[in-house]
Design brief:
Blueprint lengths: L5 E5 L6 E6 L3 H18 L4 H17 L1 H12 L3 H27 L2 E3 L9 E9 L2 E5 L7 H12 L3 E5 L5 H13 L7 E3 L4 H9 L5 E5 L2 H14 L3 E4 L4 E5 L5 H13 L9 E7 H17 L18 H16 L3 E4 L15 E4 L6 H4 L6 E7 L2 H9 L3 E2 L1 E5 L3 H8 L6 E4 L16 E2 L2 E2 L4 H7 L1 E9 L15 H15 L3 H14 L7
Helix pairs in contact: 2-4, 2-6, 3-4, 3-6, 4-5, 4-15, 9-10, 16-17
The chain binds NADP nicotinamide-adenine-dinucleotide phosphate.
The site of NADP nicotinamide-adenine-dinucleotide phosphate has 31 residues, from helix 7 and helix 8.
Length: 521
């Protein structure tokens, strides 16, 4: 048998070879989906309590391996172990708990009350039916948290799962496989498949999955949606962001600076909901910028070997080149910058120093699209209206934040922002809240994940309408049709919705004339 192609996993902060993982074939993907289908039929009949017990075993495994998982996330992405713990391992433990606990409440049978007197004999209920086998394609920037949320939701809702993680983070993918294995699921229900992105889209869509959950870039999202359309395959897209932070004149400035620092620079800014554009009311612009620049200069950057860094490296060389080009473009067009000089600039690894750009304009790449790097752009605005207008000028609409001491004002501003999540005096952290939905407006995606809405998205509703009065043998509108039946039904409409008492009475009389027909088939 010919030896398999393997993908090498490299630590982007040190260049160290971490391991290599064999590539699967499309045939193996199709076989994995078929095996998952076979196991899913029985899994869908497990009680919520039985599924819950398995998710809680997975959580226990995570709890028993916190340090190893955080270390592997850090090694494969270049982010710090602290970032890995706070934004990946921690949210996964809480998400497993939340979905294990909430799925029964969210997905159990729901009764529906009759909508009008004409249908009082009908009793309806809605069951949430698992989709079948869920395909998940996930990115490298949160290689543990993003797929684990979706795996947990899919399983609790009664589905099988076939997962592809990014080629950059295959060893974290193997940790996901270990976590899921600890749940002792039926054989074949879950599979991890390693296919390169260049072939994965068509392969997944043709594989027999019943819904695809994709998290990644806008161009790939568009490509997948076009492929899915051909098969009418349901698809959920969690795509890019270009998040804005609005700093009002009455904000707690040190807190706002702390928030901008964390949400702008953690994971080296490679977060879909990283702070990228900061709009500051002119009254506090100088104060905010001075403090932000000072704090950015103090960030410690490097490979996380001695617990003495705040931020690590970028994850890929192409991302490093992209960020450099964005900074060059901004400076060429007149931006000024504060550039941290403490870091690993010039050392091995994909490091770009943290940068604050000022004097920015909408023509600069830094303001136009997603940067995905350790870079924030700060712009002075006349007032909140200008900040809102500039925030909404993006064709991406993932998240945004409002910084003010006036919470009522913050909520009014939030209502005007064209984004999927607005945080008040915080940013980005709600991705870690399993209880709140996640997803974007505009080109930031389609559908929602996380929370009760995310659990529902792993199912389709089936409504059952039952007739509870056995002596009713025929609905009013069944055959044969005559002028009298038409008038009687029109009378029913008048009885229900006419304004005057006289019209209602006349309607009731006409309805009364045809009412006996319900007793004869
Ligand atoms: P990407 O290039 O779109 O890749 C994401 C995943 O898709 C990877 O597993 C990749 O596999 C795979 N892939 C690549 N090309 C594909 C194709 N033609 N068909 C099917 N799959 C394909 O994105 P990325 O650069 O890894 O991730 C960064 C992007 O994700 C950013 O835009 C970020 O904002 C977005 N993101 C969004 C969210 C959110 O929740 N909205 C969260 C995180 C990230 P390979 O690695 O094998 O190429």
């Amino acid at each position: 048998m010919p030896s398999r192609t393997k993908v090498r996993s490299i630590n982007p902060a040190t260049g160290e070879l971490l391991g290599s993982v064999p590539v699967n074939t499309q045939r193996e993907l199709t076989a994995a989906v078929a095996a998952s289908h076979a196991a899913q039929a029985a899994w869908a009949r497990y009680s919520f309590a039985e599924r819950r017990a398995r998710l809680l075993r997975m959580r226990q495994f995570v709890m028993d391996h916190i340090d190893e998982i955080a270390a592997m996330i850090s090694s494969e992405t270049g982010k710090s172990r602290m970032d890995a713990l706070s934004t990946e391992v921690f949210p996964v433990a809480t998400a497993l708990t939340f979905y294990a606990r909430e799925a029964e409440r969210v997905l159990s049978r729901r009764r529906v009350r009759p909508g009008s007197i004409l249908t009082v004999n009908k009793r309806s209920y809605i069951d949430r039916v698992p989709m079948g086998v869920i395909g998940i394609i996930s990115p490298w920037n949160y290689p543990f948290a993003i797929p684990m949320h979706e795996v947990a939701m899919a399983l609790m809702a009664g589905n099988g799962v076939v997962l592809k993680v990014a080629s950059q983070t295959l060893l974290v993918g193997q940790w996901i496989e270990r976590v899921v294995r600890a749940g002792n699921l039926p054989n074949g229900l879950f599979s991890l498949i390693n296919l390169p992105g260049s072939v994965a889209g068509k392969a997944f869509i043709d594989s027999g999955i019943d819904k695809l959950f994709f998290t990644g870039s806008v161009p790939v999202g568009k490509e997948l949606m076009a492929l899915a359309a051909n098969r009418l395959l349901p698809i959920s897209l969690e795509l890019g962001g270009n998040d804005a932070m609005i700093v009002c004149a009455d904000a707690d400035i040190p807190r706002a600076v702390g928030g901008a620092l964390w949400a702008g620079f953690s994971n080296s800014g490679q977060s879909c909901a990283a702070v990228e554009r900061i709009f500051v009311e002119k009254k506090v612009y100088d104060e905010f910028l001075t403090l932000l620049a000072d704090r950015v200069m103090k960030l410690r950057q490097g490979a996380d070997t001695g617990w003495d860094i705040d931020i690590g490296s970028l994850t890929t060389r192409s991302q490093l080149e992209k960020v450099k080009a964005i900074v060059q473009d901004a400076v060429a067009k007149g931006a000024r910058m504060y550039r941290n000089g403490n870091g690993a600039d010039g050392t091995k690894g994909f490091f770009h120093p943290p940068v604050v750009l000022t004097d920015v304009t909408p023509a600069m790449e830094a303001m136009r699209g997603e940067v995905f790097g350790p870079l924030v752009s700060v712009m002075k605005v006349e007032n909140v209206d200008e900040a809102i207008e500039r925030t909404n000028a993006s064709d991406l609409g993932l998240a945004a934040s409002v910084w003010t001491r006036d919470r009522a004002k913050a909520r009014t501003i939030a209502a005007r922002l064209e984004v999927g999540s607005v945080m008040i005096n915080d940013h980005m952290m709600s991705h870690g809240l399993a209880e709140t939905p996640w997803g974007g407006f505009k080109k930031s995606g389609l559908g929602r994940t996380h929370s009760a809405i995310g659990l529902e998205a792993m199912t389709q509703p089936r409504v059952v309408i039952d007739d509870i009065l056995p002596f009713i043998r025929r609905d009013l509108w069944w055959y044969p049709h005559t002028r009298a039946v038409y008038d009687g039904l029109k009378g029913a409409l008048q009885l229900l919705f006419a304004q005057s008492f006289g019209a209602k009475l006349s309607g009731a009389l006409k309805l009364g004339r045809i009412a006996p027909r319900i007793f004869h088939p």
